[in-house]
What we know:
Blueprint: E1 7-16, E2 19-23, E3 30-32, E4 45-52, E5 58-61, E6 72-81, E7 84-88, E8 95-98, E9 111-118, E10 124-127, E11 146-154, E12 158-163, E13 167-172, E14 185-193, E15 199-202, H1 208-224, E16 228-229, H2 237-244, H3 248-260, E17 264-266, E18 271-273
Parallel strand pairs: 3-5, 13-15
Antiparallel strand pairs: 1-2, 1-4, 2-3, 4-5, 6-7, 6-9, 7-8, 9-10, 11-12, 11-14, 12-13, 14-15, 16-18, 17-18
Helix pairs in contact: 1-3
Amino acid sequence: MIEIGKINTLKVASRVGSEIYLASAASAKVLLVDKRPPICQVGEALEVFVYVDTEGHLAATTTIPKALVDDIAWLKVVSLNYVGAFLDWGLPKDLLVPFGEQHHELEVGKSYLVKLFLDKQNRILATTKIEKFIAEENFYLKAGQKVSLLIADKTDLGIKAIINNSHWGMLYENELFQPVQKGQKLDGFIRHIREDNKIDLTLHQPGYGKVDELTDKILARLNNNQGFLPLSDKSPPEAIYSTFGVSKKVFKQAIGALYKKKLVLIEKEGIRLV
């Protein structure tokens, strides 16, 4: 079954002159609309994005847009007219945000967080009213789980992020040791599920899996620096992050593990290889 607004694997069903038609086992033929179609033979499979054209017909393109249906994305407004605002999403035909799907009037040149959806005619549209699609509480994510994050707004506590296009989570300011920007996509981890089922996040793998990986890096750095590293459990978090890309908490766990194994000495000015 063909999924509109998604990536589909379709086979070349036929060629009629310069036109290429694609199909799956249980679908009607879909026209490939690329102006410069790939070199392909009948029976060959192609990865394509499928949408409904202005005449209500299915169409396909090998150009993959910046976001798919059900995604939340950070997209820029490129034009306005009497029906709404149009966003650059990487395809020749811009993506419409109807006036009824805008919290407030959008401005050309500015970017907004939007959710892509299908209307009743299966047309792909976007909305800035994303709150109704994102849950505050969690009932299936687990601590330690790797997730996809989309950076949203700054708050008094830190940075809100959208988890897997479905949940809100919080990256706390005092645990964030790298710059992030609204609309940025990056991987993260579920640090903690609170009693109210709200989600705390981290950009670093929690637990001793991350610690074990770091101990190897510390030993390698010590061996390459004549057995001494000018970092200790007293060093500022920024210095630790700039060197190893981890929080001070993880660094302290790693050097503590090395100390217990009698591999390093922890001195006031740094750590030394035994």
